[in-house]
Amino acid sequence: xxxxxxxxxxxDIVAATRSRCDEGAVADYxxxxxxxxxxxxxxxxxxxxxxVLRAGDATEPFSxxxxxxxxxxxxxxxxxxxxxxxxxxxxxxxxxxxxxxxLEREQGIPRNPFVNAxxxxxxxxxCQRFLQPERAVLEFIHGLLGRTDVAIDxxxxxxxxQHSDRNAAIAHFMRSFGKLGSQPATVLDAxxxxxxxxxxxxxxxxxxLFLAADGRDxxxxxxxxxxxxxxxxxxxxxxxGAYDAAGDFACRIGLPTKxxxxxxxxxxxxxRMSLCAWSPRLDANGNSIAAAAAIERFAAETxxxxxxxxxx
Amino acid sequence: xxxxxxxxxxxDIVAATRSRCDEGAVADYxxxxxxxxxxxxxxxxxxxxxxVLRAGDATEPFSxxxxxxxxxxxxxxxxxxxxxxxxxxxxxxxxxxxxxxxLEREQGIPRNPFVNAxxxxxxxxxCQRFLQPERAVLEFIHGLLGRTDVAIDxxxxxxxxQHSDRNAAIAHFMRSFGKLGSQPATVLDAxxxxxxxxxxxxxxxxxxLFLAADGRDxxxxxxxxxxxxxxxxxxxxxxxGAYDAAGDFACRIGLPTKxxxxxxxxxxxxxRMSLCAWSPRLDANGNSIAAAAAIERFAAETxxxxxxxxxx
Amino acid sequence: xxxxxxxxxxxDIVAATRSRCDEGAVADYxxxxxxxxxxxxxxxxxxxxxxVLRAGDATEPFSxxxxxxxxxxxxxxxxxxxxxxxxxxxxxxxxxxxxxxxLEREQGIPRNPFVNAxxxxxxxxxCQRFLQPERAVLEFIHGLLGRTDVAIDxxxxxxxxQHSDRNAAIAHFMRSFGKLGSQPATVLDAxxxxxxxxxxxxxxxxxxLFLAADGRDxxxxxxxxxxxxxxxxxxxxxxxGAYDAAGDFACRIGLPTKxxxxxxxxxxxxxRMSLCAWSPRLDANGNSIAAAAAIERFAAETxxxxxxxxxx
Amino acid sequence: xxxxxxxxxxxDIVAATRSRCDEGAVADYxxxxxxxxxxxxxxxxxxxxxxVLRAGDATEPFSxxxxxxxxxxxxxxxxxxxxxxxxxxxxxxxxxxxxxxxLEREQGIPRNPFVNAxxxxxxxxxCQRFLQPERAVLEFIHGLLGRTDVAIDxxxxxxxxQHSDRNAAIAHFMRSFGKLGSQPATVLDAxxxxxxxxxxxxxxxxxxLFLAADGRDxxxxxxxxxxxxxxxxxxxxxxxGAYDAAGDFACRIGLPTKxxxxxxxxxxxxxRMSLCAWSPRLDANGNSIAAAAAIERFAAETxxxxxxxxxx
Lengths: 312, 312, 312, 312
Known about the structure:
Chains A, B, C, D: Its EC number is 3.5.1.2. The structure is a homotetramer. Chain A is α+β, with helices and mostly antiparallel strands. Chain A has helices spanning 3-17, 31-34, 68-80, 101-105, 116-129, 133-145, 154-162, 165-176, 184-195, 201-207, 227-240, 246-252, 289-302, and strands spanning 25-26, 42-47, 52-56, 62-63, 151-152, 197-199, 257-259, 264-269, 273-278, 281-282. Chain A has two domains: 3-62 and 198-302, DD-peptidase/beta-lactamase superfamily (Beta-lactamase, 3-Layer(aba) Sandwich), CATH 3.40.710; 67-195, DD-peptidase/beta-lactamase superfamily (Beta-lactamase), CATH 3.40.710.10. The first copy, chain A, is built from 13 helices and ten strands. The first copy, chain A, has a five-stranded antiparallel beta sheet, with helices on both faces. The first copy, chain A, has a three-stranded antiparallel beta sheet with strand order 4-6-5. A two-stranded antiparallel ribbon of chain A has the order 1-10.
């Protein structure tokens, strides 16, 4: 498909999916997120030649929340390499993203880097490397975008930190098993700030393009991560990227995705493109209903699926 | 890669991987399996043009065990279509394949068709459609192969049934939630027989080729399943096909796989080929160590991965 | 208190508690139990001198269900002695009576003899000692009563066995851990028959009187069990006798009790008496609402409590 | 038994039990506790007439740890009355004292006041009533003893607070369910200080004497708590007072007990006396081996058991 037919496609998808923006509920576990206008819907595609296509509210920044785990993981993998896997597993959890049950059974080693426990371990790794890990994640994103105008929403970060008891429980729990090097409060400060980064669909699609290109930014420069690491990140997105609906997403969409409670969903088509959709209302698993519908429709219309034989 | 370079590659892989046949232990939970010669190693590839390449012990039949779940699932999906998903989930379980814990939490609905509970539900579905479900699975395999010389090993089936208390517990447990239509004994008879089907690497690669071809057998005839169903099966293999090591397999191998405690591992390269490796000794998760090593090496050497951008 | 004031007291309690017979629901997990007239309420006391006092429907037989676990445990302890505790624990479970979760964690050793798993192990022990364990339990009760007119309700036993999938799951599960010597079907036949014994409040109070007398039937003969065993049975009743409401019963009633889903509740006042109340409607834990209210009132009015200093 | 025969009995028990002081290991989860001389063994009895008998190291203060939960609960019950049970359950947990698993299932309501979660809720209740809850507990103990020389060991309190990640996890977890009114840090400060109160066997036996006397201090004054509350505390001690060995203690000892990882065990004989034994080395459940042996022997020799008919 060329750029103009892709543009037409996502325009159509946004138009057809608007009706689903009514379903579900905006995340309300922190007051700052609950204030987002719920009727937004955006979609963007970044293709390997660097083109970025936009539809609907694709340029409006929103709170990326758990999508930040993807950038933090990539940064940690760059720094630590394979030894990172001694601190966090790579298996789907079979339990909600914020559960402590498996953590108790597995003595403080989180199942994967995308459950909250795993993301806190990743932040802990970054705390040992950087004085301000959230700035390191932000600057990493700046580097990926070639721009420095992406920022942390301080109000969201503060609100998030004030309502971080569940994550504090997880952090203290891991520390009680000797699995957290820094103080929980330090890790939580950085983690809440990182989740409060605001980005648009267009920026998220562009910033994650290296995952579609075996770790190399297609527009040049040195690799972001090596090909093996990029593939592993895609594999983790596929098996663990959509909270406790990862299996359902794999069946419905067939692409590596990472979702966030801000309503964003990022998806990767290896060898082709990266895409992102956003709409604030969530289902019971914490995934955006309209954004998931938009990406599912995109996959169905193009036939793009890592599990399929046909090439669009 | 052409056929001769693929042949050279799998010959090399089998030679290089022989040394790993010492690691792990043959499944001993049923006496009949414990008698298999442990030093076997075979590998086979079926490409879309129908070519089947063989290396090592690729033509020696072995007990396919849980790989049979793949054929049973496909047959059930053909018959039931999408309504099948009302009876079984599509999420990874985060627990060992024979755990009852999640089943209790989720009131008798198994997490996916590849944990034992889910496979028993699939057999139950087949019990409602066929008088002898294990014959139906066998004949389905005959149809895929275009041959009728694949058979159930009656000794293994009997031994398996005599040691099926854990699966009997699961079956009765689901029935106590009203989630099993047939009597547990009926379901267990069929399930144990189906697991005792004996096939070689070459036959397994050939029989699963439709999964690499969007559900259509490349050598003609009507589709085995539609493209969407084939992709979903691949997605389920990726997220749930390797017991509680599915995430690790996705990271290491990057292909949909289904493993069995007989030591077989089947893998699908969508759009390209299906492959199978076999060696009896297992790791703690119940996956063959040497067969996994062979397939991992194959993926590394060819660069084939559903998560990668490059094309070999 | 003398017999006539005790008689007046239980007459009053039955009259005052009738209004609570409306609350809750009759057990409906087996059809035969669902047919019991729900408005019944009886109460009986057996004192150490052998007097039996009756109020309301105290002489109407009902299905004793889990109260039979008490007699089976006593019989098994008589035969096995302390070695019985190698097969079953003595700790409260913190989970519903038919849960399999702890059984998985604890590798097939039930937490205590009153959860279903533990009761099935007790029946398995009896299966190894008696050809017809349910007859052995019945004859043990006949011996305690000095009469042989107590019987198994064959209709209830049959209905129970037809709806025993949950218990079959538990039995097969324990056998998969090597913790059940007999075939699950054999154990379940005996267990379901034992639960279907029909007795009245008056008979239950009389038959359990040895528990109030350090194991010795106050009207003579050899001890039923030794004092230590009798005390342990009382301790198990206190900590585990009321399903997942044992702690609440200990706080509200303060006496060792054993409840059954037939609506019976047996209570022991060590050194004084044994008592039983019955009414079919149950709360969510499976305990009779009106029978619990009657016994709670009895304890409050008399001041009898194993946790209290005063003597009535 | 009169005082001199009781004195002779506990002297004998201490002498005979010394040999068991070698078994087990001193609690080492906080450095300050690990320094306690491990060979200590003391025992004391307080009878209803106010006599206190001492044997061995009965007057040496030790860290009362979880035994403090008993005094905190009593104080909270005095202040809150029955409404306290809206915030904490009364059921045994079936899981280790510091588990988070049940807390997740039960949405932040602890199973009972003696698991750590429940004790933290009790401290939270006291935080809402007192500026310095640990001082309130201490002064409550002073009142029970009629002396003010019992104190918090500041070194132990500090060490405990520095190693309180597990309890911090529990506190934040409950707060995430909206079940903790104060800040976790505030609750933890008070809780760690309360656990660090140092008392001797003699003082603990004397201070808990009201539990043997239906809530009234036998030497006069107003009741500590009413009879119903005192009985409920005894019931909770019996069902939940010895961590995950409560059932075993009920069978072996047959008295309400409360244990602490400092090695102390307090036991109540309703209507008779309160007693305490202490020895630092613990079993895997966190209960003192020698102190449990001493109390078990006391119960066996005297025949005192709340489950028994005989009177010593």
